[in-house]
Amino acid sequence: MTDVTVSPTSSQPVNLLKVLGPVHVWGLGVGIVLVGEFMGWNYGVGKGGAFGALVACFISGLLYTCVAMIDSEITSTVAAAGGQYAQAKHTIGPLMAFNVGLFMVLTYAMLGAADVQVAGQLIQIGAQNLGHTIDWQPWTILCLAGLALLNYRGVFATLTVNFVITAVAFLTIIILFVGVQPWNPTAVLLHKDLLTGLPYGWIGVIAALHFGIWYYLGIEGTCQAAEEVRSPGRALPLGTMSGMITLLIAAALTWYVCSGLLPWEYIGWDSELAPLYDAAKVTGSSFLTVALFIGTLLSAIASANGCVNDSARAWFSMGRDRYLPEWFGAVHPAYRTPFRAILFLMPIFAVFALYIPLAEIITFSILSGLLNYTFMPLNMWSFRKKWPVGTIRRGFEHPFHPFPAILLMALCVTTFFAVYLGYGRQLLAMMFFYIVASLWFAFYRYRYVRRGAQFTMSWPRPKGY
Amino acid sequence: MWEVSGWAAWILSAAIFAWLIYDFFKINIGYSESVLTSSREGVDELFPAEGGR
Predict the structure, then answer these.
(1) A6: which DSSP letter?
(2) Fewer CB atoms inside 10 Å of the end CB: C or N, chain B?
């Protein structure tokens, strides 16, 4: 392996390493999201019934396909750590970039905290099933410590591990699907008896959109690897779009298996933590039960791992541009990771994981993610308007512009309404927080921003400027 | 064994965080701030042919 350590007296810049390929991008994107197939999506069943959750799954799938297409085009062109933050900096301006950076840090920090909390609780459940009573907190912290170490010591190992454990978790969904004998729909599955219409009508379907997001939340995180992939123009679109296809398959299989084994009232119950694991238990097969327990645990760990990676890159990028203190923009001279950002975020992960209820953390994560998706259509319109196709070299050009951007905006507005139905207070509190943070940035922090060095891409002057 | 597993997890976590903090201070003391914060967007010296500006 190449020694990349920089000596203390070197005049060489200490940059992040370009060592990742498409499989790492897939591992990062799917790794963050796949936990949503194992848990979380099922609360949408409580809002709209099994069919309502399926409609929400497809509508959210459409939303995220638009996200993946837009992201693939812009990120393969703006190849910088920070993902949408770096995009916003180039296409819109500093205040939007600051907000987008915060959206991402909070989305991933909250999601990662929820993941390690769940990982600890799953270990507790596993021990209970073996007849032992243990606390979940030490396992949550051990999980976080292990991921901090992995992320601190290098991105290649971090995302290679994520690829492997994500692939194993995905495989367990396939194993369960095969295990319920889909070629013989009445042998194990009971869709005919368990499926009902829409218990709360179409308003229930709209309310279910809030949790339909859970099937795919975080796929946009692939952009954070932009500065560390060997070939952004190839790896990012390939990893992101193949990741999206994987998630669509996993979401459809998950809904099909769970709705055929468990009544919708149980799947959508507030205290139901892991529907795929429970579906495996219902089959009566010890092999499937153990496989899905392992799959659920690995998916939570993979998601947390991706979240540590992505939240640290977003925080690091903002520090590097002095949107936050420049101190955070440091890179480890041997491991080439944003080591200060990683360590700084760990206490935040730990406090949320140990002391905040799961539903609250998830809601804050979803709200910040949704704000980020609402920015993307604006980002796309601005990008294509300022640099039309043919004026700069793009790694990928998404088809049918501006239709995906318009569709994405319409779906975001509908989903905001869905969130408002169930979590209006949290939505307003979150908006208030971002307004206060924006005022702080505009009237205080902006004076420290390295304004002349904001624009790092070698593009021509934008059209109309 | 299950009774002590929680303590073992706490101790292992503390050891990992202790090493991270040790390395963190070692690097901060051993390197100047200008070296540690010299990273620039889209630049990498390992693959100069592929790097950005």
Answers:
(1) P
(2) N
